[in-house]
Records
---
Amino acid sequence: MLTISIENVNVEITSKCNLRCAFCYACCPMKEGIDVPFKKLNKFFSNFSKDGRRLMLTGGEIFMRGDVLKIIENAHDLGLLVDIFTNGTLLTDKHISFVSEKVDKVFITHDGSEKIHNALRGKDMFKKTQISLKKLISANCNVNVQCTIVPQSFQFEDEIIQNFLDLSPQSVKFSHISKVGMGKTCRNLWLSDEEVLSQIDIVRRLSKESNYRIMSVPDFVNNKKYSISESQIFPKIMPWIMCNGDLVPYRDDSSRTKISSISTYPKLSVNVDELVEKLHSIMRRNIRHKEYFDYMEVVSDAIGELAK
């Protein structure tokens, strides 16, 4: 019987979200959608904790679930390091107090500029996220920001930089719209090749002006560095539990690369080494002539090609 042991895993505990971001890679519905059953999560956490170390709870928006605090607590009490990903708009003072005690890292979407954030996330969403961010930082949470850069963002670069300098989170990851999920249809929000590379200027500026206090990184991968040290830049797999309970080596809405499930882990249904080598072979071929690449896009294309 084939089995697998993993140290880190992303768990999509819900596909529900209170926002409707047009570019969402997860294609999340607002209210309809599914939650991974509470009992199945607990069983998986128990099995995972035997060898695992860290999990990321994501969605959807995890605070759409009324039992999210209990989910976090159960994982934490098993000795796991729990990270969460949120848009920050549903957080209450009770949530923040709890998170400060039970969560290792908080990842939160914040696009730096009020005009850009509201255009991407919805009217008045910036204010809600900004308030939550300030409260999380005041509560000494380890806060890490995910900032989406679109063509219009460069007009507000000074505002974006100053906002993050004032907030002073642990890190800021600048990302562009990946051509996956609903992002495939948002051509007006895609960055040109030159604009993608211009993210580095923002990264360098924030790092310098914060005196390197704020870790600032872009979201694309330099091909030369990847080719030299592929295994060091990315782990062999980046496992996800999808909302339907499937365990996949990389995020995969289609479940074409299912290797196990939330109910059967750590038992494997396929040979992971063979599957991953096929994916990596396709990825290496597809990026051969690219100066840089979006890892999420390359993985998505490889999964699609593997299924043909």
---
Amino acid sequence: MKKEILANGVTIIYEGDNQLEFTNIGVFVKVGSKNESIDENGIAHYIEHLLFRTRDNGNYITDYFNEIGAKFGGFTGKEYTSFYLKTLSEKAVICAEKLFEMIFNISTVSDNDFLIEKGIINQELSMYYNNPLENCKSTAIELSFGAHSLTREIMGTGENLEKFTRENIIDFHNRYYYPENIVVSITGKATDELIEKIKNTFGLLKRYNRYTSNNKIPLLSFSGGIKHIMSNSEQAHICFAFNMGVLTQREYFIIYIINKILGSANKRSHLFQTIREKLGLVYSISSQPIIYNEGSMLLIYAACSDTNLDPLLENTQKVLREFYLNGIDYNDLRFSKDQFASEMIFGLESSMDKMFYFGTNTILGKKIYSIEESRELLESITIDDVNNKITEIFNTEYSLSVFSNSKPEKYLHPM
């Protein structure tokens, strides 16, 4: 794996395998919904949509990708935006140039395409906001961290979307799509010609000195709370959120072990085995770590019939109390480490996954570990490391959101 920082600040990271006949290219931009003001919320996501409508000589640039059979896409997160493609290696050089043009020619988007994308995103918003589980999770996150920009939805709101103008879009694009905010990640067949083309093309970007001092995002401050919202859904939804603070990369590994034993669907999962397999209260119950540079949380969410809501809340809290008091044992630790090692190695067998791993860690300022380094770090984690972290997480306030047809009075109280 090689990493270079160009004179203008663009970072290029690549690992070639010339036995392959395809190439993966990802462009990562250090901007997401956390960088938006309240009035701008949703603009980063809107821009990502619009960039797939940039043109060259009147034609959509993405038409070329479709014509040659390349697989391409993009997404917006809370911390960064990504554009990526997979193509036959013989087409990689021209695809790299086209991808650059697509991302940096936003002025070529037509007024009609601006309107079309607003309509598409409005449909996306409607689907998302009519999903009670997602609303339940969002409410728990807002209870936890209040008005912080990381609690806002990536898609923003319909009201904001309607107000965005071409000038708003181009201004925001200029403010964040500058060289120091760009990482290009390449895996698969990475020829010298391709790497030179990427260096020469992305090296043309000019620094926008007036934009390089972006406002620093404050750390997340956890408040906690409990909220019930009446819902017309046939199912009740619950979501707990526990604060985990700012984590080191070593602590990521510890959190993975905790998550695997607490809420994954496996034979050693405390929540899954008790709430689903033993009591039959739900179809699924899961835990999910949400990790940002400014802080992190552990979510636990489930859905059930309204009649099962009180026993679900009661028994979930009971399992969490026991997990807090007893922690994990050596068999749990070994199981989690073996699961982690398998998933890590299987995942990095995919050159596309490896491209995302390189790009994501680089754009977020994280170290890139080799498989050997990861396994060594994993094996260094002790049962005391894990159980101390469990005590730290569950010995604090938490948030709980409940969406249901009836209010569960009995179990809406602190653990």
---
Amino acid sequence: MKAGSTSPRRRYCIVGAGYFGLGAAKALRDDGVPYDHLAGGNGVGNTLTETLMATSSKRSIEHPDYPVPEEWPEFPGEGRIRAYLRDFAREHDLDGKIEFGRSVKGARPLDGRDGHSGWRLELEDGEIRHYAGIVLTEARTQKPRVDLPGHFSGKRVYATNEEETRDLEDERVLVIGDGNLACAIATRIGRRSRKCYVSTRGGSLLPETLLGVPLSELEERLWWLSDERFLGRLVGPLSRMILRDQPPSRLLRRDLLEEPIVSSEALHQIRRGALEVKPEVARFDGEDVHFVDGSVAAVDAVVHVPSERDVALPVGEELLKYENGVPVRVGSVFLPGLTNCYLFGPLITRGGSGRIISEGSEVLARAIRAQEELSHPLVEDLARMWPPDSRLPLSPAAVLREIRALRRCIDGIVLYGRFRGYTAGMPPAIPPAPAQHENASTARKEALST
């Protein structure tokens, strides 16, 4: 363990073993921070993240210290991304520490207030654990609103990935949802369905490449690509294909530009008629779907897709503040009023996350170290410089700028705290979980043996 590392009694918990979860685990291990790693699935990876990153180039998804194979195509796709994650975990000896099949049901501060004294985690099987802090790298998507007016006589499906829509081949399908996830599922359905519609509130549509260069790589190198005014001029002609009945001023609305959809295949399917974009649904009438613009379409199935921004965190809702259904955050990672609770992954970016995860996980480890040293919540200092908001980052380049600014702020806060005497030394140990819940799996084994 490194000199000056945290006490073994102050252990942290990483929730999720996807792209961001593995990055966080490597950073904490390299920095000597004790941690447990819980994952609800049975293997490395996160289907939602992999789907959203399927339109990212191989150079933009790789970790700087673990390059992707040279022979891979420019856009690897979900299968190769999943294989890359497994190899990354094996190469850095991270997979052996992950407890698979351990979903977190809820998380609450031990002191009932802000979490400065630690966190109480309840797992789905009833086990209770206490930690100094928690790192949430994935979150459950909330089910979308399905109580639309009228009666639909066909099939209705709730889907977060392509596998859940495989039985809709050769049918007329309507996908209802906003953002990159809904677009990704709609384009996959459009390949094999008789006709596919996608109902959305609007947004900007971008190709995966610009002048032959992957957009996710251009955004990292050219910061002005994420500038709102430039993006509006770039996507205006493309978006008018989708929002053809909307006034041009709607194309420059900030809430639409913050979540651009990236898909060259969607553009191709729209042009050849395999995919047709519709506005919001007004009502159902048997197999007919009536839209707010007065148009009608007959469909055999409706697929409801959650927005990637509508996430359900295991932290109690009364501890969080929401704006437009999105948790308010400080610098995308910290939750106002909560100490030692970090949101690393959900709501950060739509793709191109290799460097974001590498640099962001290092900042995460710095934040944990800083909070161990400071006598007051780090998030309070950051909130003074970084007003809390629910804004979603516009591009990977914008996220990287935010992460680098966070690193400078954290380093400055620690230096100022040392100068002013705002450090408290090693914080107290976290109290153990109640004995009756300390190891639920052991209790089950003992019950079976008797």
---
Amino acid sequence: MSLEQLNSFLGKVKGDTSLQDKLKAAKSSEEVVSIAKEHGHVFSVEHINQVRADQLERIAGGGECIERTVCISVENSLLD
């Protein structure tokens, strides 16, 4: 339901290669939200979009993404 939940989920993703693989296979933000929910983290697509905007600003500015798997999902979602 919140950015805190999303950030907590991203922390979990960093240490779980199986979860990273699931996120890499996700074809939409809705799938990412569903995967997160399966792991006890509840947030909305809007929260992903907010993080996506922040990450895109970092990418445009030459910075790196906080979490590679989210960047991959972001790139996939942007193609939709």
